[in-house]
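Hi C.,

You asked whether I'd gotten around to modeling the 269-residue construct. I have! Everything is below, sequence then structure, no commentary in between.
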Amino acid sequence: MDLVTQQGLSRHSAPYAWRLIATALSFALFGIGGVLLRVLIFPLLALLPGNREARRTRARATVSGAFRAFVQFMFHSGVLTYEVEGVERLGRPGQMVIANHPSLVDVVVLIAFIRDANCVVKQSLWDNPCMRGPIRSAEYISNSGSLDMLDEAATALRDGQTLIVFPEGTRTTPGQSPEFHRGAAAIAVRGARIVTPVVISVSPTTLTKAEPWYSIPRRRFHVRLRVGEDIDPGQFRAQGPAPIASRKLNDYLHQHFMKELAKDEQSAT
């Protein structure tokens, strides 16, 4: 199993004041980078030869590379450390990557390690001045909650794309168990070749739904992504019509994540 890890240049966390400044710089860099991608990088990439699929692939690779550089900046500036277990099993054709969503940064880390991935993103980000350029150029899918969205996502999987979905739809509320909406399972039943769960933990918790960016922990936080064993959606399709199959798959995924997150909590104590 491949392990990508950056757990620190030293055993000691950077001073609180510096990490607060570095966190502010990280947010500024993320916003400025998104605008530069939209107004400078993607227009240049559009001039290169190739069909729509080639342009989309270049855009997704650019977003992935930019996110990876951003994660490295956060690591080297002392904001975070990270590890990804099983990274070699991400990015396969028709693979649906399902992850929990404890923090604002986990989306960035996950996309950083999948060079050519589609992603279901919040509708509000499509009009965000910093994010709309990368999102539209990469042809990510808007989480509108409509049947058209489900069909679009399933079609992407059937076409051999890798698709990242966060079944919670938003970040987990601190202190509460994640609640999975059935839409992710419905997409998997309709189009996925394989479903791969990725359990994400952030310790200490930070950048959650209830916290502003400046509410940083007393020490730098550690992001851990664990790529789980593949799940065959065919075994659930065989259990009945699509609504029944998606409900059973959703229940299975929810129980899987609850069990794995409990393991993370025990290991952290």
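If it helps when you're writing up: The beta strands are 3-6, 80-85, 95-99, 117-122, 141-143, 162-165, 194-203, 221-227.

Thanks,
B.
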